Predict the 3D structure of the following.
Amino acid sequence: MEIPKLKIGNLTADIPIVQGGMGVRVSLSSLASAVANQGGIGTISSIGLGDVKDSEHNYESQSRDALVKEIRKAKTMTDGHLAVNFMGVLSNVDDLIKASVNEGIKTIVYGAGIPVKLPAIVPDPDINLVPIVSSARLVPLILKAWDKRYSRTADAFILEGPLAGGHLGFSEEQLEHPDDYSLEKLLPEVLEAIKPYEDTYGRKIPVIVAGGIYDGADIARMLSLGASGVQMATRFVCTHECDVSPEFKQAYLDAKKEDIVITKSPVGLPGRVINNAFLQKLEKEGKLRIKCPYHCLTACKVETARYCIALALVNSYFGDVENGLIFTGQYSYRINKIVSVKELMDELIAGIEAA
């Protein structure tokens, strides 16, 4: 297969691979810039970047300053394409988006919420707006609202299937039957939903698929089905450039198929994780003590939450995986070594070409 370029608005990436945004410091400037340097789109996650202690008193400014620092650092390491990923349930999401735009970021990826008002926050038409969806149901809702209120359409969509890591846009019941919601079934529905708006605006709205994309053959299959590109996150964790602790990466290398499980997040969504001592302790005790000085997530109900997800993810980042949550995609158990981003991208490209 000849590898197509990925065009999003006025951006053209040589390789149709977007490195997914992984929250709480998993995808920072080092990883994002390395992917961008290989011709893909590198993504910085805006979530949980502030200093743990200082953020207790200045959460919003600490979060903003830390994100700006990562963006500026990434720009010193690459001239390639960078995106920033945001969760709509962040209490300060609008502020973080505006800070990213002020720093020259040209692609805003928005998940965990319905971005009906996103064009009002980012009125510049030269900045690409990319919502994340898990079905075709939300696509016309977003596009109709943007068309009516702002005379604007999406520059791309990321379609995330049920095999992705982290928070998932599916119910626990749906996740028990992932084949019923596979990308192969969801992608044609999304392509059909965007077609009227492609006709109206006279341009293609690319669909980038995510969740369960492991190798070049997977990428080639998705491209042949009509996807314009893929988003991959899990594969990039076990790279030298990913900033997480060695213990975090080792948990990936040690994981077996049966260790990949679904848990209920304090955000109210199911999430795919590696089963570890932290989850086992949580299962035994039912609820851990919570101190919440941040109020980082609007969807988190502290009084009923079983644990602080921000602290659990930070613990894993720093290496305390015994007291930490480890998000992962369905196929992380297939990873058996740590490689460079270049090695991984070369492997994926060769797999696409061979398909």
Remarks:
- The radius of gyration is 19 Å.
